Amino acid sequence: MSSQTKTGKVYLIGAGPGDPGLVTVRARELIETADVLVYDYLANPKLLDWARPDAERIYVGKRSGLHSIPQDEIEEILVERANKGQQVVRLKGGDPFVFGRGGEEIAELEADKIPYEIVPGVTAALAAAAYAGIPLSHRSYSSSITFLTGHENPEKQSINIDFKQHGQTNGTLCLYMGLGQLPRILGELKAGGMAGDMPVGVIQWATLNSQRSVYGTVDSIVSDIESAGISTPAMIIIGDVVTKRAKTEWFEGRPLMGKKIVVTRARDQAGQLTALLESNGAEVIELPFIQVQPDFNPQQLAEILAGIAIYEWIIFTSVNGVTAFFDLFYKAFEDIRCLGPMRIAAVGVATARAIESHHLKVDLIPENANGDSLADAFIQNEGIESIQMLVVTGNQNRETLVKRLETEGGAIVDTLPLYKTTKTDLSEHPAAERFRKEGADAVLFTSSSTVKSFVDQAAALKLEPDAKKPAFGSIGPVTTNCLKELGLSVGFESKHASLDHFVIATTKHLKG
Predict the structure, then answer these.
(1) How many other C-beta atoms lie within 10 A of the C-beta of residue 28?
(2) What is the mean pLDDT of residues 195-215?
(3) Cβ-based burial of 89 (10 A; exposed 0-12, middle 13-18, buried ≥19)
(4) Is residue 327 located within the same domain as residue 390?
(5) Which residue has the higher pLDDT, 13 or 158?
(6) DSSP letter for each residue of 356-378
(7) Arithmetic mean of pLDDT, 146-160
(8) From 9, 19, 35, 40, the catalytic residue
(9) Same domain? 82 vs 16
(10) Which whole number is the average pLDDT over 342-368?
(11) CB contact at 8 A, 192 and 164
(12) Of 177, 198, 235, 389, which one is the catalytic site residue?
């Protein structure tokens, strides 16, 4: 069915407070299948990674004092794309119906007879309170929760709410978009009878690893905010429940909270390391120093796959090799049993995990994740003389590994290069620009190639005078030697060449 004949539809989706893990299953399903995504400033850009590569992405970022596209033009975009027969996802921070102008957009869709669906999201007040450990309701202190906004209409810098009437509330007040008007709002609350010692909590960037909280009273909170450097977006919670917040800071108390760490891998290869760092509270900047692309000889590949059963060992030297090999293997064979009875070796734990995701057992993993350790394990513990082995690798071949297997172990080794690793140009990359301006607490190097690329692009990564100078972390001895050879100081090295140990070493170094 062509786009001109099928019926278009608009999905108003709550993108939640920021953490992608708080988005609903229904929201993700729709993002993954959308033709067009129209998203706000407060919708986490990571949500766009779920979309189809060919989906159109339209940024209509709106924040206090800065509106890139007027509301009526946003509504026109929704109607226009739907009339073309497209499935349109409108991503709105928080919930579409809680100070999100969802009602206005629905009115326009109904006027133009555009089908729509509403997908609710976690609104900022609920999320900020939970991630700060504040119970919005409490049997002894608060039996009501009131959501208020500092700007009923984001197009104007004024408010019409009479805050005096909320001055004697016995419940909890949750104030959205109120930071700019806070002195006036607090003055009206006090005029209405609120005590100056009423507790107040302010949570900036709630649910993200950049979250920061400050606590005070109605009388002190404005100066407390200024001292802490808190700015928008921030949720303000007023009420006795603020003093009942959890003693354990389950979110902000994580070991790497407040630390900014650069990961030197392409996004599709950085996932596991980034996830480990973020789960410990770090704010991660992903700098793709290298990119991985398929690169193989079709004739050589066909010959090796045709005779795959002759190999007694297959050795994978990287996660990239595992991914490339099985992508091609499944195109040639429909059954994993066509791999034959060979045994499997992996250079490290991360590579082994990638293999195990195909429900295959890894028979050999060296203690240290490098080619020499793998060669030692084979030569010392396995009888490989005259054994046929296949090493799956990239364009930067593990020549030492292959040479040692052949000369010291007596094995018959074939290599199968399936991908190439090339350096990226970071001169215009937004992550590089952020690094130049802000710096970081640490830069983590996971291979020699990322170290070399970092040095090669030194001009594009030169820090501005006020940027924080990072410590350089190495995943293992090979990477450490490369750092030293290229004149870079090594702040710390992972005890074992695995991502888990690398994160432990990073935490230990940054916590001092």
Answers:
(1) 15
(2) 97
(3) buried
(4) yes
(5) 13
(6) HTTT----B--SSSSHHHHHHHH
(7) 70
(8) 40
(9) yes
(10) 91
(11) yes
(12) 177
Q: Encoding tokens for residue 172?
A: 């909890």
More confident residue, 243 or 265: 243
Residue 189 Cα distances to 182, 196, 355, angstroms: 10, 9, 61
List the catalytic residue out of 9, 62, 92, 259.
62
**Site of tokens 């016995």:** 170
Residue 123: per-residue pLDDT: 97
Number of other CB atoms surrounding residue 265 within 10 Å: 24
> CA 205, CA 184: separation in Å to the nearest integer?
23
What's the rounded mean pLDDT across residues 144-160? 73
Under a CB-based contact definition with an 8 Å cutoff, are residues 383 and 410 in contact? no
Residues 376 and 312 both lie in one domain: yes
The domain that contains 215 carries what CATH number?
A: 3.30.950.10
The pLDDT of residue 270 is: 60
Contact 93, 25 (CB under 8 A): no
462 is catalytic: no
CATH value at residue 83: 3.40.1010.10
Q: What is the CATH number of the domain that holds 404?
A: 3.40.50.10090
The pLDDT score that the predictor gives to residue 497 is 82
Residue 155 lies in a domain: yes
**Predicted confidence band of residue 158 (pLDDT cuts 50, 70, 90):** low
| Number of compact structural domains in the chain | 4
CA 18 from centre of chain: 11
Q: To which residue do tokens 């009526």 refer?
A: 72
370 belongs to a structural domain: yes
Looking at every residue in the chain, the average pLDDT score rounds to 90
Does the pLDDT of residue 153 top 80, yes or no? no
Judged against a pLDDT cut of 80, whether residue 65 lies above it is answered with: no
Does 448 lie in the same domain as 387? no
Query: Do both 359 and 461 map to the same domain?
Result: no
Answer yes or no: do 212 and 130 share one domain.
Answer: yes
- Identify the domain containing residue 225 by its residue range: 125-244
- Active site annotation includes 1: no
Q: How confident is the model at residue 107, as a pLDDT?
A: 94
Distance (Å, rounded) from C-alpha 432 to C-alpha 339?
Answer: 42
Q: State which amino acid sits at residue 78.
A: L
Distance CA 369, CA 373 (A): 7
DSSP 315: E
If asked whether residues 37 and 69 sit together in one domain, one would say: yes
In this structure, which amino acid lies at residue 355? I
Strand ranges of the sheet holding 290-294, from the earlier edge strand across to the other edge: 290-294, 412-423, 388-394, 313-316, 343-346
Residues 6+ apart with CB under 8 A from 93: 15, 16, 17, 18, 40, 41, 42, 43, 100, 124
Phi-psi region of 190 (alpha: psi -120 to 50; beta: other; left: phi over 0): alpha
Residues 297 and 285 reside in one and the same domain = no
Question: Residue 493 is inside which H or E element, if any?
Answer: strand 492-493
Is 40 a catalytic site residue? Answer: yes
